[in-house]
Amino acid sequence: MKTENKLNRIFGLFLVLTTALSMNVSAMPGDVNGDGTVTMSDANVVVNYYLATTKPSDFNMTAGDVNNDGTITMSDANQIVNMFLTGSTGSSANGHEYVDLGLSVKWATCNVGADNPWDYGDYFAWGETEPKNNYDWDTYKWGNGRNNYTYNKYNNDETYGTVDNKLTLESQDDAATANWGGAWRMPTVNELKALLDSCYWEWTASYNDKSVKGYIVYKVKDHKDMGKRKSGVNNITEAAYSLSDTHIFLPAAGYRYYKYCEFARMFGFYWSASLYENYPESAWYVYFDSSGENTTNIKTHFRFEAITVRPVCP
Q: Does the global pTM surpass 0.90?
């Protein structure tokens, strides 16, 4: 009998330890109730736990320690509230936050040069790593001027100058890597396609009440929502998503051409790291506006013109 009781106690302890370990491994910072999102409900759990009105057995309190100081206090609750209000995820790489949309890479919550998800950030010519005042053929780093329209890097066609057959940006020419460091980089054209085809896109005229237009890109809750769009004109799908669901926001930041910013608040353009194989004067990007499903697509853009960059990491 004593041996049996001892075995039962050991088995019970094993279950407790394995349960705790599995919870800790899968913990997403701030997601205390384990529903896959960070909301005010998670903050309420932390407040109640701090005030000793609830016990932690039903919740993953490891996720409640968002500031990683080993204790759970009102400071953690305040951070969770801020994460919910700003779209922050609590997950970061090299000091920049990301979201797991269920794709092959994690997507940053902000553009390069932006402080918040709704900020436009900086604009970059393809293959350049710093913003500038004037974007044209004569100022393009990898071009030889408007007189011959040839290139000295990233070219697979002798018609356009020196051939090196480089079709993807090297890290030193990647605006995401150069500005954020670590494993951050610009997405490939295939990763942009996956974002377009595997997520649910919904246009908004005022993201998080910040009066900024653009598309909210949600991690799908149902397989049938993959690749669906809800534009400013047509409701392509009746799927129900809210800001409490896992998402990123892509502001309609327009693009810069010569010294001017064009189509801000109307159109969005986001670079890939991939050269257009057929015409090396251009590179791939994702394009969108509010008018409908057919205008949200993967297209090509002249390399010397400047658009925004949304980084990815492994």
A: no
